[in-house]
């Protein structure tokens, strides 16, 4: 039996272990926010990877955004050296999951197996991918114990809230430097036969409109900040949203609707703060003197970040021209530039070859509509040879009854093992 088939058979033989590992990971409720049980899941991964011959490090992102003594940001990085010198292949998965939400028909942290699927929060995004990368590495080591180079596996914090207590922190400490790591695969759920080359950019900002408080029975004596914000939204509807819809990218972004520039109004808060749930009284009659709106602007590789910001400011200035007392502040919250790995990069070529060997067809090449931790590996780590590849359907992420297909995980693990063969061949 040739080596490719040996690896595929070895991965398939570990199917039950792959299922059990995924269930165990789902059953640790690593909710973010606030950042629960990070140490528990890192300790679990530590025990597993030590048994497989990895050297492990548990690293707290001390002082990073979100880190506190109540909710410390723990990460694990495991490394296993080969028999001879060579490149390092790193599989990076985030350990955090988003809130459960409503509408579940299964236990969100039960890891229930039904109809060839494993259900639970994080099953798809991305504990199934983490489990697949571990099993792929263990299968590869069993069949190719004398490989060249090194294999790394990491479980990192806070991807769902920006990754600053996880991959960003580790990148700043040199864990993703090109001198240490040469190839990175992030097992995000982009489908088992697709390679994700990168993502669009993001610019978050908070807009505040200002007014003057007065008695609600005499609003003419005040200045309503909520009405001012309504004028901002109306101007966005009139001019900005149509303009963004006309901007299209050559990036292979999926789904098709994300091939254009987009803007989401994340939240609007104006007037009195909401009272606690046990408050039974009425609100006081006041004209709101402040209104805040958070916007989430996703932009294309063809756009400049300065242009993105200028478009929003232009909206606000047009509103100012038509409203005598209009005043505002704008504050940037977050920015990430678009990134896209070249299709001829070594990790892309190796995973593409592995997909073709597994499925008998060439992969699709896609770009994610939203960002993920490739942004930190690229910008901070200065490592361009990075992709997302993993099992699962992106549309299921953050939804009720999230699941990952067992066969998808097995086949993705086979792809990962074959990519290791190609990149670490001795």
UniProtKB/TrEMBL annotation:
GO terms for molecular function: metal ion binding; succinyl-diaminopimelate desuccinylase activity. The gene is dapE_2. Keywords: Cobalt, Hydrolase, Metal-binding, Zinc. It comes from the Bacteria. Its EC number is 3.5.1.18. The keyword Metal-binding applies. It holds the Pfam family Peptidase_M20. PANTHER family: ACETYLORNITHINE DEACETYLASE, ARGE_DAPE-RELATED DEACYLASE. Residues 198-319 form the Peptidase M20 dimerisation domain. Belongs to the peptidase M20A family. This is Succinyl-diaminopimelate desuccinylase. It is an enzyme of class 3 (hydrolase). InterPro entries: ArgE/DapE, Bact_exopeptidase_dim_dom, Peptidase_M20, Peptidase_M20_dimer, Peptidase_M20A. It comes from Roseovarius aestuarii. Its cofactor is Zn(2+); Co(2+).
